[in-house]
Design goal:
The structure holds 2 protein chains of 2 kinds.
Chain A (H helix, E strand, L loop, with lengths): L4 E4 L3 H8 L3 E4 L3 H8 L8 E4 L9 E2 L4 E5 L4 H6 L1 H6 L1 H9 L3 H6 L2 H6 L23 H4 L20 H8 L3 E6 L2 E6 H10 L12 E8 L4 E7 L10 E10 L2 E10 L9 H7 L6 H12 L11 H15 L3
Parallel strand pairs in A: 1-3, 2-3
Antiparallel strand pairs in A: 4-5, 5-8, 6-7, 6-8, 9-10, 10-11
Chain B lengths: L19 H6 L14 E7 L5 E7 L1 H4 L4 E6 L5 E3 L5 E7 L2 H10 L1 E6 L7 H4 L20 E3 L2 H7 L2 E9 L2 E2 L7 E7 L2 E6 L4 H12 L6 E4 L14 H14 L3 E4 L2 H7 L2 E2 L2 E9 L5 E11 L27 E9 L14 H19 L3 H8 L3 H14 L1 H4 L10 E12 L8 E6 L5 E4 L9 H13 L6 E4 L16 H24 L9 H6 L6 E6 L9 E12 L5 E11 L6 H20 L30 E7 L17 H13 L10 H7 L7 H4 L1
Parallel strand pairs in B: 1-13, 11-12, 16-17, 20-21, 24-25
Antiparallel strand pairs in B: 1-5, 2-4, 2-6, 3-5, 7-17, 8-15, 9-14, 10-11, 10-13, 15-16, 18-23, 19-20, 19-22, 23-24
Helix pairs in contact in B: 6-7, 9-17, 13-14, 16-17
Chain lengths: 321, 698
C-alpha cells in the first residue's frame, strides 16, 4: 500500500476535520486494509483511527428503540444476551459473519460500510465497471456470486449481513454528514449502489456512521444464510425477517435479502401482503414468490432464485419461534 | 535374513510425533521461518497478461527505491508469456513494503496477444487461439482398445452413459513454496520448503553451473508439498540470483496469490463414459473419452511437454472389452504437475460414479456390484469390513427415497496405489559411549512423521524408547535419500533403518563383545566403546517393504434439496498399507487425505475468466477449502499386514473420498451431480430447480 499519515481522533468533530476530503476512517480495518493493500481504492492521504471516539462502542437498550454504536464489534453483538433475546435476528446474523478472529475486531459501522466482494472488483489486474472501467466482467463472465436484481449495469451484491437484518428491523443508521446527524434508512444507505456502478453505498467522503437505532416494534426477528461451506464463507443468499406476532397474525412484517442485489432487497408489496396474515407455509411461500418475481438470473446465478425462495420461507417461519 | 519382529513394543502401535512439542510450541523452524544473517525479502513480478510478447523490462526504477538491494529479470527480452502470472522479474529488499513498491516501479513493455484461451472446451476447437504457436492445443487422441468394445456393448444387459467432470485443483499447501537462498563465493545454501532435498540440490546446481558439492539444501520442517515441491522452482533460481547480486541471503516465499498461478495443479477432466454389464453384474464393456487441461503443460506435439492429463481407466476394475482415449488440451494457464495420487482422484470419480449409475439401473446394491467386479481380494475384505462398520445394509436406500426436504444418502468407492521403496536410501548412525544414538538420513519430512518413523523403528530394533533416538534429517550433508513422493517415503526409510540397526548391533557386538546389546544391556555395551563413538551405515534392502495398497471409503451425507447444501455426516475408511509402523501417524494420513478429498468433492476449483484470462480466485476467500465446520466424523480402520512389508499410505487416502461423497449425494437426491465440486448451485440445477438465464429467455 502507499504511505499515509495516521491520526487518532478523540471526538467526532476532530475525526471529521482530520479526515478532510482526502482521508479515510479506520475502525476494525478488515475491509479497509485489504482495499489499500490491493490498491483498489484511491490511496488516502490520512487514516483517522476512530476507535477511541467516546461512547460509540455501547449497546443501549430503550423502550422504543435500541442504540448500537458504530464501534460495537460483531462479537459484542453475537455475545450480548439481551440482543439475542430482543433481536434474535441480529444475533444470528452476527454469529455467521466471517471467523471468530474477524468478529472480534470487525465493527458494526465497518460491516455496513464494507466495499464490494465481487471477484472482478477485488482482482488487482482487472479494471471493471466498479473501478471506473468500461465493462462489468461479471455480467458476461463468472457471475455465480452476483446479483439477481440491480438498478444499473454492475451486479456486485451487498454482502453485509447486518445491513440485511437492520433492513428487516427497519433500523435507522445515523450518519454524521457535514457536521449534522443525518438519519438514513437502510434503503437510503445503499440506494446509490443500486443506481451507480461506482458506488457501494450512499456515503460521501467524510461521512461517518455514528450508530444504528432499532425500533422495538418487531419483537420477532430471524436471519438465515446459505453458503458453499458451513462456516467462514460468504452468504450465497441471506435473508432476514422481522415482525410482531399477536393473536397468531403478523404485524409490521418485513423481509430483506442480502447477496442478491447491490442493496438489501425489499419488496414493499410482499410486506403489505403479509400484514395481518396468519404465518403459515402458504403465506410465506406467496411472499417469497412476490419478492423474487422480477429476478433477472444470469448464466450462473439462477440457483439463487430457488435458494432465496427457500430462505424466505424458512426465515419467516422461524419468526414463530 | 533381515525381517521385522513379530512381537513389538512400538512398531504398529501408537507413538506420538517425536517433534510434536517442537511443532505445537512454535520452536520448529519451517523454511518460511528461516532468518539467515542479513537476510532480505524477495518478491516476484508476474505477467498481468495471459499471452504476450515481453519486449522490454526495466528494473532500474526498482533499484532506486530505498531498501532495494537487487533486481533481476527472469530472462533477456524479448520472450513470450503464455499465462497470467508467469514470472517476469524479481526484487530483493530490506522490507516487504520496499519490495512491493519496487515491483510496481518496474517498467514492462509488452505486446499483449489479441487472442488467448483459458477454457479447455473452447481451446480444443480447431479455430481456437493457439497457446503454443504452430501447434494445435488439443493432442491427437490415441485410443487404446482391448477386446471388442462395440460388439460387447450390444451383449450387455445394462449400459449407462455419463459425462463426469472434475475441475483444476490448485496446490495450496499450508506453507507456500519458497526458499531462503544464500549464494556466496563458497557456494549456495538453500533453506527450501521441499519434499526432495536432493532434487532441489540438482535444480539449483545445474542451471547455476555449480557442482553438487557446492550446493547445500536444508529442510528441517516444511508445511506440505503434495507433489508440487520437488524442485527449487523458478522462484528458487530467482532467489539465488538475487542473493548473488545483493550479496545477502534472500528469503523468497510465494504469496497465496502467487500460489494460485504458477506452482502447478491437478489437471481437469471431462470424462464421457459408457459402462455395460452382463445380467449377473459382471462388467463387460467400458468406453472412456476424456479431455482435460494441464495448462501450458499441455499442447500438441508439443511445446508444453506432453501434459499428463491421462489417468488409469477403468481404474481399479478389469473389463474385458474397453476403449480409452485421452485428449490433452493446452490453455493459457499455469502448468499442471504431480498432485497427491496423480490421475487417481478424477479416475475414481469418473468410474465410481458410473458404477453407481450402473448399479441403480440394474437395481443392484452398489457394494454388491463392487464385490462382484473388484479384482483385489484385499479390497473385497475392506468393503466387507467397511460396510459392517458403516452400517451399509441399514443405511442404503433406493436413490431419492429418503423422505423429507433434507435427504440422506450413502455411497462408497475404492482406491488403488502402487508405492514401494527406493533403493537409493542411505542412513548413518552414530552411537556414543554414553549410549546416545543419532541417526542421520538425507530425507525430509513432508509432514507425515518421517522423524517419528525412524525413531520408532530404531527404538524397536535396539530395545530403546523412541525419545532416546535423536533423528537428523533434512540436510544434503547427510547420507542421501529419495524425495518424498508417490507414497514411497516410509517404504524407503524403514528397510534402511532396519539394515542400519542390524549393522550397528553387529558392530557393537564385534567391538564390545556383548552378544546382545539391546534393551537393558544397551548402556553397558556402549560404555565399552571407550572414547570413540561407533559409526554404522545402512542401505535399503529388499524383502522388508512391499507395493500395492488399497482402501475403501464410505460416505454418508445430508442434502438440503431446497438450498442445495451438502453436509457430510460421516466417512468410514478402511485402508491397508502392509506393515504399519506408527498407527497414529498412519491414521493421521488417512484423516488428511479424506479432508483433502472433501475439498475436491465439494469446494475446490480454479475459476478463470475468459475475457481477461486471470485466475479469479487466487485466495482462500473464493478458492474454498474444507474447514473445521465442514469436517464430519471420520472413522479409520487400518488393516495391519506385516507379511507384506512396509507400504506407503499418503496417496490412496485421498483417492476415493470425492467419488464416495458424489455417490452419496446421488443416492440422497436420486439424481447424479456429474461435476465436481458439488456446490449448492449444481445440486439445485441437477434437481431442475434453476430458472433459465435472462439471456436464454430472450
Amino acid at each position: 500500500m502507499n504511505a499515509f499519515e495516521y491520526a487518532t481522533a478523540l471526538s467526532t468533530d476532530s475525526a471529521r476535520s482530520l479526515v478532510s476530503d482526502q482521508g479515510m476512517y479506520l475502525a476494525g480495518g478488515n475491509d479497509l486494509l485489504g482495499l489499500l493493500k490491493d490498491y483498489l481504492v484511491p490511496s488516502p492521504k490520512i487514516l483517522v483511527n476512530i476507535k477511541s471516539l467516546p461512547g460509540m462502542d455501547a449497546i443501549q437498550p430503550g423502550d422504543k428503540s435500541w442504540t448500537i454504536g458504530a464501534l460495537v464489534t460483531v462479537a459484542q453483538l453475537e455475545h450480548n444476551d439481551a440482543i439475542q433475546k430482543t433481536f434474535p435476528g441480529i444475533h444470528d446474523a452476527a454469529a455467521e459473519i466471517a471467523s471468530l478472529q474477524i468478529r472480534n475486531v470487525a465493527t458494526v459501522g465497518g460491516n455496513l460500510a464494507q466495499h464490494s466482494r465481487c471477484w472482478y472488483f477485488r482482482h488487482r489486474d482487472t479494471v471493471c465497471l466498479k473501478k471506473g472501467g468500461d465493462l462489468c466482467y461479471a455480467r458476461h463472465g463468472e457471475n455465480r456470486y452476483h446479483s439477481l436484481f440491480t438498478g444499473n449495469t454492475c451486479i456486485s451484491p451487498v454482502v453485509s449481513s447486518l445491513a440485511t437484518t437492520f433492513a428487516a428491523l427497519d433500523a435507522t443508521v445515523v450518519v454524521l454528514r457535514n457536521g449534522v446527524e443525518t438519519p438514513m434508512t437502510v434503503a437510503e444507505l445503499y440506494h446509490r449502489a443500486w443506481e451507480n456502478p461506482l458506488a457501494h453505498n450512499s456515503l460521501n467522503p467524510g461521512d461517518l456512521i455514528l450508530r444504528v437505532e432499532i425500533p422495538t416494534t418487531r419483537p420477532r426477528s430471524a436471519y438465515m444464510q446459505v453458503s458453499d461451506k458451513h462456516a467462514f464463507d460468504w452468504a450465497l443468499v441471506s435473508c432476514a425477517a422481522a415482525a410482531d406476532i399477536s393473536g397468531g397474525v403478523l404485524r409490521s412484517p418485513r423481509v430483506a435479502l442480502g447477496s442478491i442485489s447491490p442493496a438489501p432487497y425489499q419488496v414493499q408489496a410482499a410486506n403489505d401482503f403479509l400484514e395481518g396474515k396468519t404465518l403459515d407455509d402458504a403465506a410465506a411461500s406467496a411472499a417469497a414468490g412476490m419478492i423474487l418475481k422480477d429476478a433477472q438470473p444470469l448464466e450462473s446465478n439462477g440457483y439463487k432464485v430457488p435458494m432465496a425462495h427457500a430462505l424466505i420461507r424458512r426465515t419467516l417461519m422461524k419468526l414463530k419461534g | 535374513m533381515p525381517s521385522w519382529p513379530s512381537n513389538t513394543k512400538y512398531i504398529s502401535h501408537d507413538t506420538r510425533r517425536i517433534d510434536g512439542p517442537e511443532k505445537v510450541s512454535g520452536r520448529a523452524r519451517y523454511s518460511s521461518d528461516i532468518q539467515a544473517k542479513g537476510w532480505l525479502y524477495g518478491m516476484i513480478l508476474r505477467s498481468k497478461w495471459p499471452a504476450a510478447k515481453i519486449t522490454g523490462i526495466n528494473v532500474q526504477p526498482a533499484l532506486e527505491i530505498p531498501g532495494i538491494k537487487a533486481a533481476v529479470t527472469v530472462k533477456d527480452t524479448p520472450f513470450t508469456v503464455r499465462f497470467y502470472g508467469q514470472e517476469l522479474a524479481a526484487v530483493a529488499g530490506a522490507t516487504k513494503q520496499a519490495c512491493l513498491d519496487a515491483l510496481r516501479a518496474i517498467v514492462v513493455q509488452a505486446e499483449p496477444a489479441p487472442l488467448f484461451v483459458v477454457n479447455e472446451t473452447a481451446a480444443k476447437k480447431e479455430n481456437s487461439p493457439q497457446v503454443w504457436a504452430g501447434a494445435a492445443n488439443a493432442s491427437t487422441p490415441d485410443p487404446k482398445v482391448k477386446g471388442s468394445p462395440d460388439a460387447a456393448f450390444s451383449q450387455c444387459a445394462a449400459v449407462i452413459e455419463g459425462f463426469y467432470t472434475t475441475p483444476v485443483q490448485i496446490h495450496h499447501p499450508m506453507e507456500t513454496h519458497g526458499n531462503t537462498v544464500s549464494w556466496t563465493d563458497e557456494g549456495l545454501t538453500a533453506w527450501a520448503s521441499t519434499q526432495g532435498i536432493s532434487s532441489v540440490q540438482n535444480s539449483f546446481a545445474r542451471p547455476l553451473g555449480l557442482e553438487h558439492s557446492q550446493v547445500r539444501v536444508i529442510t528441517q520442517y516444511m508445511g506440505g508439498g503434495f507433489g508440487s515441491k520437488f524442485s527449487g522452482g523458478v522462484h528458487g533460481l530467482l532467489a539465488a540470483r538475487l542473493s548473488q547480486a545483493a550479496k545477502a541471503p534472500v528469503r523468497l516465499m510465494l504469496t497465496r496469490f502467487d500460489q494460485a498461478l504458477a506452482v502447478g495443479n491437478r489437471p481437469s477432466t471431462f470424462q464421457r463414459i459408457r459402462l455395460g454389464a452382463l445380467a449377473d453384474g459382471t462388467l463387460h464393456a467400458f468406453d472412456l473419452e476424456d479431455y482435460g487441461t494441464a495448462g501450458i503443460g499441455a499442447g500438441a506435439a508439443t511445446g508444453g511437454g506432453g501434459g499428463g492429463v491421462s489417468f488409469p481407466a477403468p481404474y481399479i476394475y478389469r473389463v474385458a472389452n474397453s476403449r480409452v482415449s485421452f485428449t490433452s488440451v493446452a490453455v493459457n494457464a499455469g502448468s499442471a504437475c504431480a498432485f497427491r495420487a496423480p490421475g487417481c482422484p478424477p479416475a475414481s470419480f469418473g468410474v465410481e460414479s458410473a458404477m453407481d449409475d450402473l448399479a441403480v439401473k440394474m437395481k443392484m446394491d452398489p457394494v454388491e456390484l463392487r464385490l462382484k467386479n473388484d479384482p483385489s481380494e484385499i479390497r473385497q475384505r475392506e468393503y466387507r469390513i467397511g460396510a459392517e462398520k458403516f452400517g451399509w445394509k441399514g443405511k442404503y436406500q433406493t436413490p431419492g427415497s429418503s423422505p423429507g426436504i433434507v435427504k440422506t444418502g450413502v455411497g462408497c468407492a475404492g482406491a488403488n496405489w502402487g508405492g514401494g521403496g527406493s533403493r537409493r536410501t542411505n542412513a548413518q548412525a552414530q552411537i556414543s559411549p554414553d549410549g546416545s544414538v543419532e541417526i542421520r538420513m538425507g530425507v525430509q519430512d513432508l509432514g507425515t512423521g518421517t522423524r517419528t518413523v525412524i525413531a520408532v523403528i530404531a527404538a524397536e530394533l535396539l530395545g530403546l524408547r523412541p525419545d532416546q533416538i535423536t533423528v537428523k534429517i533434512g540436510d544434503t550433508r547427510y547420507p542421501p535419500g529419495p524425495g518424498s513422493g508417490g507414497s514411497t517415503t516410509c517404504a524407503s526409510i524403514s528397510p534402511t533403518v532396519n539394515d542400519l540397526c542390524g549393522n550397528a548391533l553387529q558392530q557393537l557386538q564385534a567391538q564390545t563383545g556383548v552378544a546382545d546389546a539391546r534393551g537393558e544391556n544397551w548402556f553397558a555395551a556402549c560404555k565399552k566403546l571407550g572414547v570413540n563413538p561407533l559409526i554404522a551405515h545402512g542401505n535399503w534392502i529388499p524383502g522388508l517393504s512391499g507395493k500395492g495398497t488399497g482402501g475403501v471409503q464410505f460416505a454418508e451425507v445430508d442434502v438440503d434439496t431446497e438450498t442445495g447444501l451438502v453436509t457430510v455426516k460421516k466417512i468410514t475408511a478402511v485402508h491397508d498399507c502392509g506393515l504399519i509402523i506408527d498407527k497414529l501417524t498412519a491414521e493421521s494420513q488417512i484423516n488428511g487425505g479424506i479432508i483433502m478429498g472433501m475439498g475436491y468433492a465439494l469446494y475446490e476449483e480454479r475459476v478463470m475468466d475468459n475475457l481477461s484470462g486471470v485466475v479469479l480466485n487466487p485466495n482462500f476467500e473464493t478458492y474454498k477449502l474444507s474447514g473445521i465446520a465442514d469436517i464430519p466424523e471420520i472413522d479409520v480402520t487400518l488393516i495391519n499386514m506385516p507379511e507384506r512389508g512396509v507400504i506407503g499410505i499418503g496417496e490412496p487416502a485421498t483417492i476415493p473420498t470425492a467419488a464416495a461423497i458424489g455417490n452419496a449425494v446421488a443416492n440422497a437426491i436420486g439424481a447424479r451431480v456429474c461435476s465436481l465440486p458439488i456446490t449448492p448451485a449444481k445440486v439445485l440445477a441437477t434437481l431442475g430447480k434453476v430458472p433459465a438465464s435472462i439471456a436464454s429467455q430472450t
